């Protein structure tokens, strides 16, 4: 069965934790954080799966005053560069738009060229200069925003 996008289910959490550790080995979300994100944002946690394997996910916050944040986007390493992250983002953005979101924000590692390229291709623009130490010492980020 080809992978399809669907809402995450509680029993996806172990696979989500495994995928997050694969894609972000230096600082994956701890399981308990993924659990809390699921409890808070399950309506905005989409996964790409084929019924047996989870290949990716995107997590957005619930809208607040027309604003939402993309907290994470991950695709298993062996499938990166095949448009799956784009598919997840397009679906998530469409869902947010239907809920009345008019602005989406995200942060990205400035050295993650493929992610920066994807976000720019989707219409995100830089919001100011590099944010030094955004996530702590040496953890610089670009803040990007998209008007829906």
Automatic annotation (TrEMBL):
Top-level division of the source organism's lineage: Bacteria
EC assignment: 2.3.-.-
Residue stretches making up the N-acetyltransferase domain: 3-148
Molecular function via GO: acyltransferase activity
Keyword Acyltransferase part of the UniProt annotation: yes
Keyword Acyltransferase listed: yes
Keywords, sorted A to Z: Acyltransferase, Transferase
Pfam families xref list: Acetyltransf_1
Principal EC category: transferase
PROSITE patterns: GNAT
Protein's UniProt name: GNAT family N-acetyltransferase
The organism of origin for this protein: Streptomyces hokutonensis
């Amino acid at each position: 069965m080809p992978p399809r996008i669907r809402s995450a289910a509680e029993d996806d959490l172990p696979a989500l934790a495994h995928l997050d550790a694969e894609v972000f080995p230096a600082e994956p979300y701890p399981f308990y954080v993924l659990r809390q994100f699921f409890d808070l944002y399950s309506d905005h946690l989409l996964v790409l799966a084929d019924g047996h394997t989870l290949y990716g996910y995107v997590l957005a916050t619930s809208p607040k005053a027309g604003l939402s944040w993309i907290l994470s986007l991950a695709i298993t390493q062996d499938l990166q560069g095949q448009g799956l992250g784009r598919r997840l983002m397009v679906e998530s953005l469409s869902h947010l738009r239907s809920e009345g979101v008019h602005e989406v924000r995200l942060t990205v590692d400035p050295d993650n060229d493929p992610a920066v390229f994807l976000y720019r291709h989707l219409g995100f623009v830089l919001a100011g200069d590099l944010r030094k130490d955004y996530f702590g010492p040496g953890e610089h980020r670009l803040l990007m925003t998209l008007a829906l």
